[in-house]
Amino acid sequence: MITPDPVALVRDHTVYSCVMGSRAFGLATEDSDTDRRGVFLAPTPLFWRFDKPPTHVEGPAQEQFSWELERFCELALRANPNVLECLHSPLVEHIDAVGGELLSLRAAFLSRLAHQTFVRYALGQRRKLEADQRQYGEPRWKHAMHLLRLLTSGRDLLRTGELTIEVGPAREELLAVKRGEVPWAEVERRMTHLAEENDAAVASSPLPPEPDRARVEDFLIRTRRASALRPEES
């Protein structure tokens, strides 16, 4: 069997794909891009070779990015914000039986580790915004908007045990930040307050301390085994 190129893996073996970014968050405007994210299952025999299949693929379309299933699960178990949000997109474009089982495992990936990852990621982004503020006199307002959105999403996840990525009634308030209509000092105040709310929520969170790694691993093993037994992939 000839090792398929990355484009072929995405084209022929995607198990789940969705729209992310502003369109999934409910923050799209007329000039918003369409960001697509997906998960592909590389045929098991490809892992028997010295040259392994890629862990991720950019493209082939613009603003498209896909992960191989195992890499995606690893990142989700670590509570990577981008990957967890991908699992909860309201805009699913493609899903097969494996993708359906992956989505059925969403709760298995969620844990209090999200407190560390969401807040740590937000802190890193805030430092970049502060550097822009010092250098250019104002931050990148779009990034400021998404930072506030992320901190709100993380806080609500810790409070409720459920991840909701649509901003709902907060849309106009967040878009005002994107347009630069909210003073930077007020944006900073909101960021600090939301980070503090994340810290306060983790102690009483209904989320488990760790994700259900065994359940996810069982899914991955069964999926790999089924792939290996398919005649066309042997």
Summarize the structure.
This protein has helices at 6-13, 22-25, 69-77, 81-87, 97-104, 106-109, 113-136, 141-160, 171-178, 184-202, 213-229, and strands spanning 14-20, 35-40, 56-58, 64-68, 92-95. The chain is of the alpha+beta class. Strands 3-4-2-1-5 form a 5-stranded mixed sheet.
Description:
- With 234 residues, this protein is an alpha+beta fold.
- It has two domains: 6-109 and 211-233, Beta Polymerase, domain 2 (2-Layer Sandwich); 113-202.
- The protein contains eleven helices and five strands; from the N terminus they run αβαβββααβααααααα.
- It has a five-stranded mixed β-sheet.
- A hairpin with a 5-residue loop joins strand 3 (56-58) and strand 4.
- Helix 8 (141-160) packs antiparallel against helix 9.
- The longest helix has 24 residues, at 113-136.
- The radius of gyration is 19 Å and the shape is globular.
- It starts with 5 loop residues before the first helix and ends in a 5-residue tail after the last helix.
- The mean pLDDT is 94.
